[in-house]
């Protein structure tokens, strides 16, 4: 049975990110340190990523600067810290098209990319609506959408229409429509036959563990992310769906913006001061 090592690789951070963007309704709760990361999946013969980060040299970098993201490091150095080159990446699963998740397409010249059809269509639609609707484009670099078209012409883009099971052996891509974005998806890695061997890579449907318990582990309450173009209700229902798929074990969900991953999994800091967290090993 194919198994995957799962490693969360931090590539930047927002040291004073507004809490309200992470937890809906927390408008007077100050700020938190928000890591920016992508996830490396490795088996005996496969190298894959969940999301790409962004490119500091283009409009994605301008967006990052505007929200106080610092310490950006290119994939060559981030991946190099664990012995991987960007050229080694064969597959990239895009949870959604926000700049910090899809802005690094160009860094992975040999990869095939996977995204939901609904995600592409929703952003194209939003870009046609005119300036009065520009709030719908928050977090997006329009040039990244054009890059997807070019990837399609090069036969390097897989456009999904809903759930896709075993897109690679024991990896499922499942839709989270009308949540954080219109066509978000999340990644399920099945490292064995039991529920205890299953991991869910949440994308931004879940930013932190607190989205799952609301700060009270004895009487948990779902609190969805504050940043969303979809429905807060759908965010909660999808979080419930994710939790149910792992038997309610919150630590089987992997939110890449969660600073507290290091408290639950083996973790170290690279030479660049970026955190590397091993969720599962071979």
UniProtKB/TrEMBL annotation:
An annotated Gene Ontology molecular function: acyl-L-homoserine-lactone lactonohydrolase activity
Essential cofactor(s): Zn(2+)
Top-level taxon of the source organism: Bacteria
Keywords recorded for this protein, A-Z: Hydrolase, Metal-binding, Zinc
Enzyme class at the top of the EC tree: hydrolase
EC number(s) on file: 3.1.1.81
Residue runs in coiled coils: none
Xref: Gene3D superfamilies: Ribonuclease Z/Hydroxyacylglutathione hydrolase-like
Metallo-beta-lactamase domain sequence ranges: 34-257
Family stated for the protein in its record: Belongs to the metallo-beta-lactamase superfamily.
Name listed for the protein in its UniProt record: N-acyl homoserine lactone hydrolase
Origin species: Bradyrhizobium yuanmingense
Classification of source organism: Bacteria, Pseudomonadati, Pseudomonadota, Alphaproteobacteria, Hyphomicrobiales
